[in-house]
């Protein structure tokens, strides 16, 4: 009887271990210390470069800061591995593409960054892979 209990316990532990190692890890940090989720900002301009990488991808947009000055906006996106699952590739957005990003502004004074952005063309049509 003890042997059957020991074997069934071992099988249960192995099965749980197998299931746990097959599930994707979804740990992430909060963006709240870096970006203000109570505000929204728009960046309209031209894509300078698109960095498709982990742990975060970035789009750099040359555009207006709202006061008539040209600045480079840094838009933080998700991980390339997650974006790829949705159909994104390094070629989805190219340098020179017109773009509009709407997202949460950076909390750092004097910077032009955002996260959690919705991406579209300047006419409002969404950018999708």
Q: What is the CATH class designation of the domain at 41-120? A: Mainly Beta
Residue share in β-strands: 25-35%
As a whole number of angstroms, the C-alpha radius of gyration is 22 Å
Distance between the termini: 58 Å
Largest sheet: spatial strand order: 1-2-3-5-4
Count the beta strands.
5
Explain what this protein looks like in three dimensions.
This protein has a domain at 41-120: OB fold (Dihydrolipoamide Acetyltransferase, E2P) (Beta Barrel). It is built from two helices and five strands, in the order αβββαββ. It has helices at 2-22, 80-85, and strands spanning 41-51, 58-64, 70-76, 98-105, 113-120. The termini are far apart.
In short:
With 129 residues, the chain is α+β, with helices and mostly antiparallel strands.
Topology:
Layout lengths: L1 H21 L18 E11 L6 E7 L5 E7 L3 H6 L12 E8 L7 E8 L9
Parallel strand pairs: 3-5
Antiparallel strand pairs: 1-2, 1-4, 2-3, 4-5
């Amino acid at each position: 009887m003890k042997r059957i209990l020991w074997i069934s316990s071992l099988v249960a532990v192995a099965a749980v271990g197998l299931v746990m190692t097959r599930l994707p890890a979804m740990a992430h940090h909060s963006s709240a210390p870096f970006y203000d989720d109570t505000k929204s900002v728009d960046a309209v301009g031209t894509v300078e470069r698109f960095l498709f990488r982990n742990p975060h991808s970035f789009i750099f947009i040359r555009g207006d800061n709202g006061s008539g000055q040209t600045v480079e906006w840094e838009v933080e996106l998700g991980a390339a591995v997650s974006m790829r699952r949705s159909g994104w590739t390094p070629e989805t957005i190219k340098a020179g593409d017109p773009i509009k990003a709407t997202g949460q502004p950076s909390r750092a004074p004097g910077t032009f960054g955002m996260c959690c952005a919705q991406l579209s063309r300047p006419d409002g049509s969404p950018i999708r892979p």
